[in-house]
Amino acid sequence: MSGDCCKLPPVQAEYEPKGSYSEINGFKTYAVGPENAKVAVVSVYDVFGYLPQILQGADLIASQGYKVLMPDFLLGDYTTAEHFAPGNEEKRNAYFSKFPGKVDTQTEPYIKYIQSLKSSNKYDKIISIGYCWGYKVIFNGQKNAKVDALIGCHPSFAAKEDGDNVDVPIALLPSQGEDMDVMNAISKAAESKNPGKNVLKHYPDMPHGWMAARGDLKGGKATDEYVDGYNVVAKFIKSVL
Protein backbone atom coordinates (compact mmCIF):
# COMPACT_ATOMS: atom_id res chain seq x y z
CA MET A 1 0.00 0.00 0.00
CA SER A 2 1.32 3.41 -0.90
CA GLY A 3 2.76 5.29 2.05
CA ASP A 4 1.27 8.57 0.85
CA CYS A 5 -2.31 7.37 0.28
CA CYS A 6 -3.47 9.27 3.34
CA LYS A 7 -0.41 11.50 3.74
CA LEU A 8 0.57 10.44 7.24
CA PRO A 9 3.36 12.42 8.91
CA PRO A 10 6.80 10.81 9.05
CA VAL A 11 7.29 8.33 11.90
CA GLN A 12 9.95 9.32 14.44
CA ALA A 13 12.07 7.12 16.69
CA GLU A 14 12.34 9.84 19.34
CA TYR A 15 8.83 11.17 19.71
CA GLU A 16 7.02 13.85 21.67
CA PRO A 17 3.25 13.16 21.68
CA LYS A 18 1.06 15.96 20.35
CA GLY A 19 -2.02 15.35 22.48
CA SER A 20 -2.92 16.04 26.08
CA TYR A 21 -4.64 14.33 28.98
CA SER A 22 -8.01 15.19 30.46
CA GLU A 23 -10.84 13.40 32.23
CA ILE A 24 -13.68 12.13 30.04
CA ASN A 25 -16.54 10.13 31.53
CA GLY A 26 -14.50 9.40 34.64
CA PHE A 27 -11.36 8.19 32.86
CA LYS A 28 -8.03 9.87 32.31
CA THR A 29 -7.95 10.12 28.52
CA TYR A 30 -5.23 10.92 26.00
CA ALA A 31 -6.89 13.17 23.42
CA VAL A 32 -5.46 14.42 20.15
CA GLY A 33 -6.92 15.90 16.99
CA PRO A 34 -9.06 18.88 15.95
CA GLU A 35 -11.63 20.13 18.45
CA ASN A 36 -14.17 20.48 15.64
CA ALA A 37 -13.64 16.92 14.33
CA LYS A 38 -16.84 15.12 13.36
CA VAL A 39 -15.29 11.66 13.66
CA ALA A 40 -14.06 10.21 16.95
CA VAL A 41 -11.72 7.24 17.09
CA VAL A 42 -11.78 5.56 20.50
CA SER A 43 -8.55 3.64 21.07
CA VAL A 44 -8.19 0.84 23.62
CA TYR A 45 -4.46 0.47 24.18
CA ASP A 46 -2.43 -2.68 24.80
CA VAL A 47 -1.20 -3.92 28.18
CA PHE A 48 1.74 -1.48 28.24
CA GLY A 49 -0.52 1.58 28.40
CA TYR A 50 0.62 5.00 27.24
CA LEU A 51 3.96 4.22 25.61
CA PRO A 52 5.40 6.45 22.85
CA GLN A 53 4.71 4.00 20.01
CA ILE A 54 0.96 3.81 20.64
CA LEU A 55 0.70 7.54 21.30
CA GLN A 56 2.46 8.23 18.01
CA GLY A 57 -0.02 5.87 16.37
CA ALA A 58 -2.88 7.89 17.86
CA ASP A 59 -1.29 11.07 16.55
CA LEU A 60 -0.92 9.56 13.07
CA ILE A 61 -4.63 8.72 13.00
CA ALA A 62 -5.53 12.18 14.32
CA SER A 63 -3.46 13.79 11.55
CA GLN A 64 -6.24 12.78 9.15
CA GLY A 65 -8.67 15.15 10.83
CA TYR A 66 -10.14 12.80 13.45
CA LYS A 67 -10.37 13.17 17.21
CA VAL A 68 -8.58 10.23 18.83
CA LEU A 69 -9.48 9.41 22.43
CA MET A 70 -7.53 6.82 24.43
CA PRO A 71 -9.08 6.17 27.87
CA ASP A 72 -7.01 4.74 30.71
CA PHE A 73 -9.25 1.70 31.19
CA LEU A 74 -6.49 -0.15 33.10
CA LEU A 75 -6.22 2.74 35.59
CA GLY A 76 -2.45 2.72 35.41
CA ASP A 77 -2.09 -1.03 36.04
CA TYR A 78 0.17 -1.75 33.06
CA THR A 79 2.72 -4.45 32.47
CA THR A 80 6.35 -3.35 32.66
CA ALA A 81 9.76 -4.46 31.49
CA GLU A 82 10.27 -5.91 34.98
CA HIS A 83 7.66 -8.58 34.25
CA PHE A 84 9.81 -9.86 31.38
CA ALA A 85 13.12 -9.94 33.24
CA PRO A 86 14.72 -13.36 33.88
CA GLY A 87 13.39 -14.96 37.01
CA ASN A 88 10.17 -12.94 37.05
CA GLU A 89 7.98 -15.54 35.38
CA GLU A 90 5.72 -15.74 38.43
CA LYS A 91 5.02 -11.99 38.43
CA ARG A 92 4.50 -12.00 34.68
CA ASN A 93 2.12 -14.95 34.79
CA ALA A 94 0.18 -13.42 37.67
CA TYR A 95 -0.24 -10.18 35.75
CA PHE A 96 -1.38 -11.75 32.50
CA SER A 97 -3.64 -14.29 34.17
CA LYS A 98 -5.93 -11.38 35.06
CA PHE A 99 -6.60 -10.39 31.48
CA PRO A 100 -9.47 -12.65 30.45
CA GLY A 101 -11.29 -11.12 33.41
CA LYS A 102 -10.04 -7.65 32.52
CA VAL A 103 -11.74 -7.96 29.15
CA ASP A 104 -15.05 -8.72 30.83
CA THR A 105 -14.79 -6.02 33.48
CA GLN A 106 -13.68 -3.32 31.05
CA THR A 107 -16.33 -3.99 28.41
CA GLU A 108 -19.03 -2.20 30.39
CA PRO A 109 -16.91 0.94 31.05
CA TYR A 110 -16.03 0.97 27.35
CA ILE A 111 -19.72 0.83 26.42
CA LYS A 112 -20.53 3.67 28.81
CA TYR A 113 -17.64 5.69 27.42
CA ILE A 114 -19.00 5.33 23.88
CA GLN A 115 -22.52 6.15 25.01
CA SER A 116 -21.27 9.31 26.70
CA LEU A 117 -19.71 10.43 23.43
CA LYS A 118 -22.94 9.72 21.56
CA SER A 119 -25.04 11.64 24.06
CA SER A 120 -22.90 14.72 23.46
CA ASN A 121 -24.01 14.77 19.80
CA LYS A 122 -20.58 16.13 18.97
CA TYR A 123 -19.53 13.40 16.55
CA ASP A 124 -21.22 12.16 13.39
CA LYS A 125 -19.28 8.88 13.44
CA ILE A 126 -17.48 6.89 16.12
CA ILE A 127 -14.93 4.22 15.27
CA SER A 128 -13.07 2.00 17.74
CA ILE A 129 -9.58 0.58 17.45
CA GLY A 130 -8.34 -2.03 19.90
CA TYR A 131 -4.82 -3.35 20.37
CA CYS A 132 -4.08 -6.74 21.93
CA TRP A 133 -6.73 -7.29 24.66
CA GLY A 134 -8.40 -4.03 23.54
CA TYR A 135 -9.55 -5.86 20.41
CA LYS A 136 -11.73 -8.17 22.51
CA VAL A 137 -13.11 -5.29 24.57
CA ILE A 138 -14.38 -3.42 21.51
CA PHE A 139 -15.74 -6.52 19.80
CA ASN A 140 -17.49 -7.70 22.97
CA GLY A 141 -18.94 -4.24 23.49
CA GLN A 142 -20.25 -3.69 19.98
CA LYS A 143 -23.74 -5.07 20.68
CA ASN A 144 -24.40 -2.15 23.02
CA ALA A 145 -21.81 0.41 21.95
CA LYS A 146 -22.87 0.32 18.30
CA VAL A 147 -19.94 2.19 16.82
CA ASP A 148 -19.66 2.61 13.06
CA ALA A 149 -16.59 0.42 12.46
CA LEU A 150 -14.08 -1.69 14.39
CA ILE A 151 -10.33 -2.13 13.99
CA GLY A 152 -8.31 -4.88 15.66
CA CYS A 153 -4.52 -4.68 15.76
CA HIS A 154 -2.68 -7.87 16.76
CA PRO A 155 -5.88 -9.16 18.41
CA SER A 156 -5.79 -11.18 21.62
CA PHE A 157 -8.47 -13.62 22.81
CA ALA A 158 -9.93 -13.75 19.31
CA ALA A 159 -12.53 -16.42 18.58
CA LYS A 160 -14.22 -17.46 15.34
CA GLU A 161 -17.63 -16.36 16.63
CA ASP A 162 -16.40 -12.77 17.07
CA GLY A 163 -17.44 -12.11 13.48
CA ASP A 164 -20.99 -13.25 14.21
CA ASN A 165 -21.39 -10.57 16.87
CA VAL A 166 -20.69 -7.50 14.72
CA ASP A 167 -22.61 -6.02 11.80
CA VAL A 168 -20.34 -3.10 10.87
CA PRO A 169 -17.20 -3.01 8.70
CA ILE A 170 -14.08 -4.30 10.42
CA ALA A 171 -10.34 -4.20 9.81
CA LEU A 172 -8.03 -6.83 11.25
CA LEU A 173 -4.23 -6.52 11.30
CA PRO A 174 -2.88 -9.73 12.84
CA SER A 175 0.78 -10.40 13.52
CA GLN A 176 2.78 -13.61 13.53
CA GLY A 177 1.28 -14.37 16.93
CA GLU A 178 -2.34 -14.76 15.83
CA ASP A 179 -4.23 -17.81 14.56
CA MET A 180 -5.04 -17.08 10.93
CA ASP A 181 -7.80 -19.68 10.82
CA VAL A 182 -9.58 -17.61 13.46
CA MET A 183 -8.79 -14.33 11.71
CA ASN A 184 -10.07 -15.65 8.38
CA ALA A 185 -13.28 -16.90 9.99
CA ILE A 186 -13.97 -13.52 11.60
CA SER A 187 -13.26 -11.70 8.36
CA LYS A 188 -15.47 -14.08 6.36
CA ALA A 189 -18.40 -13.48 8.73
CA ALA A 190 -17.93 -9.72 8.51
CA GLU A 191 -17.68 -9.88 4.72
CA SER A 192 -21.00 -11.72 4.50
CA LYS A 193 -22.70 -8.71 6.10
CA ASN A 194 -20.76 -5.84 4.53
CA PRO A 195 -19.22 -7.16 1.28
CA GLY A 196 -16.16 -5.31 0.09
CA LYS A 197 -15.98 -3.03 3.13
CA ASN A 198 -13.71 -5.09 5.37
CA VAL A 199 -9.93 -5.42 5.58
CA LEU A 200 -7.76 -8.34 6.67
CA LYS A 201 -4.02 -7.85 6.35
CA HIS A 202 -1.62 -10.30 7.89
CA TYR A 203 1.86 -9.21 9.01
CA PRO A 204 3.55 -12.62 9.38
CA ASP A 205 7.00 -11.20 10.06
CA MET A 206 5.91 -8.85 12.82
CA PRO A 207 5.76 -9.76 16.53
CA HIS A 208 2.55 -9.39 18.50
CA GLY A 209 2.31 -5.73 19.51
CA TRP A 210 4.22 -4.27 16.59
CA MET A 211 1.75 -1.37 16.13
CA ALA A 212 1.94 -0.49 19.80
CA ALA A 213 4.44 -1.12 22.61
CA ARG A 214 6.60 -3.51 20.61
CA GLY A 215 6.86 -1.20 17.63
CA ASP A 216 10.47 -0.75 16.51
CA LEU A 217 10.72 2.74 15.05
CA LYS A 218 14.48 2.93 14.56
CA GLY A 219 14.28 2.10 10.86
CA GLY A 220 14.23 -0.99 8.69
CA LYS A 221 11.43 -3.44 7.98
CA ALA A 222 9.81 -3.17 11.41
CA THR A 223 9.40 0.58 11.01
CA ASP A 224 8.13 0.17 7.45
CA GLU A 225 5.51 -2.31 8.65
CA TYR A 226 4.45 0.01 11.48
CA VAL A 227 3.94 2.79 8.92
CA ASP A 228 2.09 0.42 6.59
CA GLY A 229 -0.19 -0.69 9.41
CA TYR A 230 -1.24 2.87 10.18
CA ASN A 231 -1.72 3.57 6.49
CA VAL A 232 -4.07 0.57 6.37
CA VAL A 233 -5.94 1.93 9.39
CA ALA A 234 -6.18 5.45 7.94
CA LYS A 235 -7.39 4.19 4.56
CA PHE A 236 -9.97 1.91 6.20
CA ILE A 237 -11.37 4.74 8.33
CA LYS A 238 -11.64 6.96 5.27
CA SER A 239 -13.44 4.20 3.38
CA VAL A 240 -16.19 3.76 5.98
CA LEU A 241 -17.05 7.44 6.43
Automatic annotation (TrEMBL):
Which SUPFAM superfamilies does this one have?
alpha/beta-Hydrolases
Q: Which PANTHER family match?
A: DIENELACTONE HYDROLASE DOMAIN-CONTAINING PROTEIN-RELATED, DIENELACTONE HYDROLASE FAMILY PROTEIN (AFU_ORTHOLOGUE AFUA_6G01940)
**Stated name of the protein:** Dienelactone hydrolase domain-containing protein
* Annotated Dienelactone hydrolase domain residues: 27-219
Query: What GO molecular function terms would the record report?
Result: hydrolase activity
Pfam families per the UniProt record, alphabetical: DLH
- Organism for this UniProt entry: Kwoniella dendrophila CBS 6074
Report the superkingdom from the record. Eukaryota
